Sequence to fold (236 residues):
Amino acid sequence: MQALAGPELLSLWERGASRHALDRSALLAAAARPDWPAAGIADRPLGQVNASLLRLRAATFGPRIDGHADCTQCGQRLAFTLDARVLLPATADEDDAPRTTEAAGLRVRAPSLRDLAGVATEADAERAMRALLARCTLAGDLAQVDDAALATIEDALDALDPQADLVLALQCVACGHAGQAQLDAGALLWDEIDAQARVLLAEVHRLASAYGWSEAQILALSPARRASYLALVEAR
Ligand SMILES: [Zn+2]
Fold:
């Protein structure tokens, strides 16, 4: 996968800033996978979208992910570092066939960004899960599914589309509680793009002020050459 170049990164930042997080993930996935028809991205299995976002992030900013999560037991903030590659499937998944599976008497398909957006306003986690499953049930009666069977279906969906739900096991350093951190591939990529866009704009500002070059000229410089000019401007 190709890294985002400066002009493309700034264009994405500009278009993504005002969007809802899920809509923004679709925008970023379209940049990651120009070979995918853009109109269909919101309907792809979420795991495929997440993998594309993680790959674009690794290609542009490197594979290291620094994050934090609060212990659900004692509230201690836990920092973690991981390599994005451990979250990715070993081989690029190019399978365009719909991902479906059977569990607890239902035939279900893997959820998509559109499905998540459809249940985004549901605050209660269990009701959100049922609403999500209702959207993804192709055959069978969801109303007949009890909570134990619901867990079976969730496990089957995890196995069907493993990158859909990115969880990291974490042990609290303060109380020893074994918990999980949920990783949001779209947010992980967007945070880097947002930070990098601000750095780029500041660099354009300094070089344009010093040399009178246009934004396009400055962004066309390689990062190494841009850094050299910035060092010269700083040394004046
Ligand atoms: Zn704790």
In short: The pocket of zinc ion is lined by residues 71, 73-74, 76, 172, 174-175, 177 (CB under 6 Å). The two ends are 39 Å apart (CA to CA). The chain is about 50% helix and 15% strand.
